[in-house]
Design brief:
Oligomer: single chain
CATH architecture of the largest domain: Alpha-Beta Complex
Order of helices and strands: EEEHEHEEEHHHEHEHHEHEHEE
């Protein structure tokens, strides 16, 4: 929808706007400081109100990290059906969000709450970034290797949860992934050789990688065997669990993604599986890939892996 608005880039101080579907906006204050601003919120994806708050807040904070910024303050955005939810449940959602922000060293300075038919919760987040260290989703270069910071399959675990068929190990796996902050993004911003960065969220890996391709004017190749998949998600995917959002992602991006003719349906589902608070997708030269991957591992991103490369060519994603 934003694409129908007048170009925001007409203001030279707005260094990152909506033109390439980037993760957050950045406004230049001076040569040393840029303000990062983003907002994200959604309806519950888990039943526990505290966990819901943690996941939603972690997801919102991720957009600041994805452009290389450090979040400094957040405001809560919430709507609750006050005739259906107890005060304790509402307080637990807000407490979960505040807990995630505390883990990030970010104060929640206030917010706004309305009476709504269904619960919604998230954050508006403000951060800081050096203008010369901004990481855009459009800055990948031909020959760059692609590194994914978290395992795939959160949406599939959520699909099993919605059917009351997700086992305790699967829930723990889902919670660990969705509440792991992408704080490494601020460190990646200061590394030589890190080019393009985005976080993999609602459009799935295939959709967000195509956005990188489109922004950079490049093609990309993914190697299926190298994709990190959460173990329990792999189990449920093979059992046929999937989301409507993955199907919609295929409808939106399918013409831009080529897969092997013998690829199984569960594998196709995984390529477009919507990720809540998904991992960062990083492009960097081959001689920096081991260093970047090692940094991910050192900071507790156990699933971080090299998954493909950017190549010259018209924007397109090929899976082999």
């Amino acid at each position: 929808m934003l694409s129908k608005l007048p170009p925001a880039a007409a203001n030279p101080a707005l260094l990152v706007g909506f033109e390439t579907g980037d993760d957050a906006a950045v406004y230049k204050i001076n040569d040393e400081q840029g303000v990062v601003a983003t907002t994200d919120f959604f309806m519950p994806i888990v039943d526990d109100p505290f966990d819901y708050g943690r996941i939603a807040a972690t997801n919102a904070l991720s957009d600041v990290y994805a452009v290389g910024g450090t979040p400094i303050m957040a405001l809560a955005i919430a709507g609750f059906p006050v005739n259906k939810m107890s005060q304790e449940q509402i307080q637990q959602v807000l407490a979960g969000g505040t807990s995630a922000c505390a883990d990030a060293g970010v104060p929640v300075g206030g917010g706004h709450t309305i009476d709504a038919p269904e619960p919604i919760y998230g954050l508006a987040v403000v951060g800081l970034v050096r203008p010369d260290r901004i990481k855009r989703n459009s800055d990948a270069r031909a020959g760059d290797m692609l590194i994914l910071g978290k395992g795939l399959g959160v949406g599939i675990l959520g699909a099993a949860l919605n059917k009351d068929e997700l086992d305790p190990d699967g829930y723990r796996e889902m919670l660990e992934s969705t509440t792991k902050l992408n704080a490494i993004g601020a460190d990646l911003a200061g590394m030589d050789g890190v080019h393009g960065v985005t976080d993999v969220t609602g459009f799935g890996l295939g959709g967000h990688l195509f956005e990188m391709c489109e922004g950079a004017g490049l093609a990309a190749t993914l190697v299926w065997e190298k994709l990190p998949i959460l173990p329990k998600a792999l189990h449920y995917a093979r059992a046929g669990y999937n989301t409507g959002a993955a199907n919609r992602n295929w409808q939106s991006f399918g013409e831009h993604v080529t897969v092997p003719g013998d690829m199984e349906q569960w594998q196709k589902n995984m390529l477009m599986d919507p990720q809540t608070s998904g991992g960062l997708l990083v492009s960097c030269p081959p001689d920096r890939a081991d260093t970047v991957t090692a940094l991910f591992h050192e900071q507790g991103y156990a699933f971080a892996s090299v998954v493909g490369e950017m190549t010259a060519g018209a924007p397109h994603v090929t899976v082999r």
